[in-house]
Design brief:
- By secondary structure, the chain is α+β, with helices and mostly antiparallel strands.
- The chain folds into two domains: 137 residues, 3-Layer(aba) Sandwich (Rossmann fold), CATH 3.40.50.300; 93 residues, 2-Layer Sandwich (Alpha-Beta Plaits).
- A four-stranded antiparallel β-sheet has the order 11-12-10-13. Strands 2-3-4 form a three-stranded antiparallel β-sheet, with no helix packed on it. Strands 1-5 form a two-stranded antiparallel ribbon.
- Helix 4 packs antiparallel against helix 5.
- The longest helix has 21 residues.
- The protein is globular and about 70 Å long.
- The protein binds zinc ion (2 copies).
- The site of one zinc ion has 7 residues, from loops.
Length: 309
């Protein structure tokens, strides 16, 4: 389950408002063990509000599922099993991660619950069943690499079961069992996954058919961040037109980033698809080197970004 915490969001059942971090515009997540709502981006904490900040109703409740809730439910279902949890919340205890993994290797844990941290680096011949809960969540993010990453993770997780003398079984929980990434992950068929994925990348000019350059403009002032992002995008398209590159240097945006606000900064992004290799790269560098921005605006340049959140 790739979400730590107990639940994934807290919502008002009256007006639908979701409690978000005031600095990061992402839902605060309920941590039952410490009885706090936490922001997973900036670590801000708050107590559970008595009333909805929007409509004043007291009908706030938590929804969605995180690792802590899975751990709780599994303990209820299997009261005699020894259940432990591994996710980055336990990393605050020094060496906890290594201790738990070695306990698991020594068969002192029956069921291990966790995030993808479990998938990485666990090689245990005694694992006979692996379950991936809400397996769709990794694919439903606005990122052109989502399928590739989801497939990678699923095949990696699936490879954890049945490594020893016992036969293994892997279960994916999904609403889209026919989705090619699930089918090919199930068959452990990288070639087939690649064939489908590469066609989609080509159709939309995503890497490796282009290079993505991501510009993030951020400011504590929402309006000013958006304004400077618009100015840069406009200047860039004017320049590409002037040089006759329009077909090869595609500018997308500006749009608010998926995480619109982070640590108190409003964020806007411009994506450039460069289909001119080095020539395009040089053109973009030259363009960016000439940009001067007011002090309250920050520009981050990410070439070949690992994610576009
Ligand atoms: Zn409300
Ligand atoms: Zn935050």
């Amino acid at each position: 389950m790739n979400r730590r915490g107990y639940s994934t969001y807290t919502q008002c059942k009256c007006c639908g408002t979701v409690i978000e971090c005031s600095d990061c515009s992402i839902p605060m997540i309920w941590h039952a063990s410490v009885k706090k709502l936490k922001c997973h981006y900036c670590n801000k904490e708050m107590s559970f509000p008595d009333y909805c900040p929007q409509c004043g109703s007291d009908a706030l409740s938590t929804s969605g599922v995180g690792t802590q809730k899975i751990e709780f439910l599994i303990k209820e279902l299997y009261p005699d099993a020894r259940v432990e949890r591994i996710d980055s919340d336990i990393l605050t205890r020094k060496n906890a991660h290594i201790e738990l993994l070695s306990k698991f290797q020594k068969k002192e844990i029956d069921i291990l619950v966790g995030t993808q941290m479990i998938a990485k680096g666990l090689d245990n011949p005694n694992v006979t069943l692996v379950g991936v809960l809400s397996a769709d969540s990794g694919f439903n993010i606005p990122d052109f690499r989502a399928s590739e990453r989801g497939f990678q993770l699923l095949t990696q997780v699936a490879g954890r079961a049945g490594r020893g003398e016992f036969k293994g079984k892997v279960l994916f929980q999904t609403y889209n069992p026919d989705y090619y990434a699930f089918q090919t992950a199930k068959a452990q068929d990288y070639e087939k996954f690649f064939e489908t994925e590469i066609k989609a990348r080509q159709e939309f000019d995503y890497p490796p058919f282009s290079q993505i350059v991501r510009l993030i403009l951020s400011s504590q002032n929402n309006f000013r961040a958006e304004k400077s992002a618009m100015e840069i995008a406009l200047r860039l398209s004017t320049m590409t037109e002037k040089f006759g590159f329009t077909e090869y240097l595609e500018t997308l945006g500006p749009t608010p980033c998926v995480i619109e606000k982070l640590n108190g900064y409003y964020r806007f992004q411009i994506l450039i698809k460069n289909k001119l290799s080095q020539k395009g790269h040089d053109f973009i560098s030259k363009f960016l080197s000439k940009i001067t921005l007011p002090k309250d605006i920050k520009l981050a340049i990410d070439v070949d970004p690992l994610d576009i959140l």
